[in-house]
Design goal:
- The complex is a heterodimer.
- By secondary structure, chain A is mainly alpha-helical.
- In chain A, 69% of the residues lie in helices and 1% in strands.
- Chain A is built from 16 helices and two strands.
- In chain A, a hairpin with a 3-residue loop joins strand 1 and strand 2.
- Chain A is elongated, with a radius of gyration of 24 Å.
- Chain B is built from 15 helices and two strands.
- Chain B has a two-stranded antiparallel ribbon with strand order 1-2.
- Chain B starts with a helix and ends in a 7-residue tail after the last helix.
- Classes of the chains: A mainly alpha, B mainly alpha.
- At the A-B interface, helix 10, helix 14 and helix 16 of A face helix 2, helix 7, helix 8, helix 13 and helix 14 of B.
Amino acid sequence: MAEATLLKPRRESFWRSRAWRRFRRNPLAIVGTLIVLFFMLVAIFAPALTADRMGRSCLRDLGVKRTEAVRVLRNPLSPKFWQATLHPPASCYKIPRKGYSPIPKHPSKKYPLGLSGGGYDILYGLIWGARSAFYVGILVIGVALLIGILIGGLTGYLGGWVDHALMRFTDAVYAFPGLVLVMVAVTIFGRSLTTIMLAIAIVSWPTYARMLRGNILKVKAQDFVDAARALGAGPLRIFFKHVLPNAIGPLIILASLDIGSIVLSVAALSFLGLGPEIGFADWGQMVNFARNWIVGPPGEPLKYWYTWVWPGLAIALFVLGWNLLGDAVRDALDPRS
Amino acid sequence: MLVYAIRRVLQLPIVLFVVSVVIVGLLQFLPPTARAAAYVKSEQQLAHIDEIIKQYNLDAPFYVQYWTWLKNALKGNLGFSRVDKKPVLEAIATRLPVSAELVLYAFLPTLLFSIWLGTLAAIHRDRFLDQLIRVLAVVFWSLPTFVLGIALVAVVYGYLKLFGIGRLPPDLIIQLAQQANAGEFRYYTGLLSLDGLLNGRLDVTLAALKHLVLPTITLILVLGAQIVRVMRSSMLDELGKDYVRTARAKGLPEKVVHYKHARRNALIPVITLAGLMFAFMLNGVVITETIFNLPGLGQWAAAAAVQLDQPSILGFALFTALIVALANIAVDVLYALVDPRIRYE
């Protein structure tokens, strides 16, 4: 028994690794982590946080009466709390409206951040916007990773003309400005959250494909792959058991750090009016609601500041958090520094 | 070198061919009547939609359709822009100078400014100046273009009453239109700041520049932040190399080591990025022009996408592909000029 453990290569514990030490000592990394954690908590507990201001259809779909909403949805012992937190109905992503007045309303006791034009509750939109940001970010990265792994895996492992043809294709997609491609998709397939999520995934995979291809080429040249081949393993077994698992790790970490920039692209599209349907809790769209109120009436130029400052700040902070985190992870993993 | 450049330019039609096949191919997802809308100029024509479908072969197999599209495109008929109520090509021609002016004023300052800051950060590695530049770069890199633009509109234009939005003050636009009709003001380049000078109208130049300040700053800050980051890390890489140590050992002054040795080599990745930045600028122009109400290509494309105006968007996409391909060629040629190790066959 003792001999067997001795023969195993000693694996360095993560908590003692150089990368983790470097990460921990970087103040910007801590700031980034805290920002991302904050948004995560807001996103997860969005239903409980907004129990006092939920819209009628959201409450109906949850099966909760308005009078008992705060008591039930903020009580972790009630099953409704878990239902709302884990799988809220789609109607909860709609920002509830108080009246339909096109003029924004100043912050009040009931609506501490005010109502934007159209009577949308800004606080509700901000909180559920965090949830939709994670939802969109994770889904888009997932699809982009799938395409990237497929194409990067094929080119890296097969090589030859497949590699050549697919990489030229990858370069072409990579060089084209993403926003333009997404705009083409929206005009042809119509405006919807699914269209833009798919379109953004289709423009973001080339980075992952290139990265995976590079990693695979490195892993393929290593001795243990030759050893596996000498032992009689087939090409598929070698690829899935030996090459891919060793090449994919850093890719997944780095890809997940792109959530910030994905959310930024979606926000820009929503701001232009090409995003999800009107009323969906989405920060970019909330800035779009504010477009007519950026400059207030003569004499009070900053009268409606709260309509664009809060959602704008939310997007900027969210993206900043992810970028700080991403920089720190890349620095910590970089063997050169 | 020249041969290489010429060959690359001759490859342009292939790039455009591929892009146009993809675009016309995507249009097949729409019914023929929707495709025909691209050629409808007025409501009266809607009654004759079947004739338009026949005329442009819109219900024929894909290759026939593409062939008809190509023949028309080569004649300059890319369809009719609903947003601008004029042919797509004409819309691009009238709007291009507005965007070109913006990009012209933003591109060089972004490049110079961020190369300078990136070098500075690398030289002062881990000291206060470096930390400051790094934090500022990551903050501006994270700041969405539209949030920065809106903040500038609200605070600088709305509150401080500085600069302007739109292209010119409304009264000057009317005045210029009248004088252009009378032949007293001529649009030589379409760039108002330049045309003002050429016409001896300093007031037009000044007004045009005043209206370009905010969108230019927006583009410079957002795009510059990315280049600062690349420049810094590229410079750090170079400073760690052996030839830098040799140069220092020879007793060369630090300034010479930094600026004559390391920075020249560090600029190579920045050239690639500058080419990519051209593409990013097209993205940025869509948003800045929308916010600052500049009637350029970006504002046109944004409006067209919202109104599902396909011919305009497709025209914009083709135009973008052309620009991106040209920028890539420029990058490759510059590469060879800067780095003598690179030789193109």
